[in-house]
Amino acid sequence: MSLFASTRVVIVLIFAFAFAMALALILPASSPEGQTISSQTSSLGLERAHAHNDYEHPRPLFDALDHGFKSVEADIWLVDGELIIAHDPEDVPQAVQEGRTLESLYLEPLRQTVEQNGGSVYPGDPDYFTLLIDIKSDAVPTYRALHEELEGYEQMLTTFGPRGVRDGAVTAIVSGNRPRELMQEQRVRYAAYDGRLSDLGVATDQTFVPLISDNWTRNFTWRGDGPMPRKEREKLRDIVATAHSHGQRVRFWETPEVSPQREAVWQELLAARVDYINTDHLEELERFLLENDPDRTVPYVSWNR
Exposed/middle/buried for 273, CB within 10 Å: 0-12, 13-18, 19+? Predict the structure, then answer.
């Protein structure tokens, strides 16, 4: 081979190596099972955004992260010692067959994301990400299995113990079938308790009940048509004010999901400073918050110190 040809080969190899290194820098990090963490995670996230039944999206967790959501919801069933992700009993056999577990869809991907992003779900985010875990099967055995599984991820989780709260990148909150007495008796917990409006102003220990959630349709008649009745607007704002006075966050499920009623209710929730807006429509809520929430990266309340 001539000297000229050899030199040309070397130059080609150098350019190929440089191109490969550039691709490695600009492509998003890989996650389990071929998922990717998009460039959206470079932001601090949208504090008001909650992904209802997040696992029903094509890419559980990662679709929510792509849209900047700071809270996701996962339903679990205890099946032969495994915590299976599914909504209804008839969905469980297929979920078992597909290996759709809390660990594979949420805990392990969150652990890797926190590790990649320097200790938080979104790089540089000082506030926790919420993993709302809705227990669908029997409360006590399912929670015991959940507690054991969460213990393996305690380094990234907010922990509740005798010395108070140790803030973590992810705060797990148990909803659905909640074994209240068992959780209250625990010396150390890796999850908090999702309260209801019946707990408002009663169960005021933020370290046990940091969140108050309830069904919108059972508490308000307004569905987004026309202006919100004055008494219902006052009721909503009183609920939020009471919860916030105890350092507790507020969420409603069963809010409208069809436009324009959906956006009308979202406007009232945002004006009342409701902490989480519940939706199945990730892109639409992301756009709404980017356009309407001036403090979208700042939580209304955090842990009392």
Answer: middle
For CA atoms 35, 40, 43, 49, give the dihedral sign: negative
For the chain, domain boundaries: 38-292
pLDDT in tens, 6-44: 444 334 344 444 444 444 433 344 444 444 444 443 478
Q: What is the dihedral of CA 240, 245, 248, 254, to 10 degrees?
A: -10
Q: Give 157-161 contacts, CB < 8 A, sequence gap 24+.
A: 157/190, 157/191, 158/128, 158/190, 158/192, 159/188, 159/189, 159/190, 160/188, 160/189, 160/190, 160/192, 160/207, 160/208, 161/187, 161/188, 161/189
The pTM (predicted TM-score) of the whole model is 0.87
**CATH 3.40.50.2000 for domain 38-292:** no
Within 10 angstroms of residue 151's Cβ, the number of other Cβ atoms is 13
Give the pLDDT confidence of 41-99 residue by residue, as tens digits. 347 899 999 999 999 999 999 999 999 999 999 999 999 999 999 999 999 999 999 99
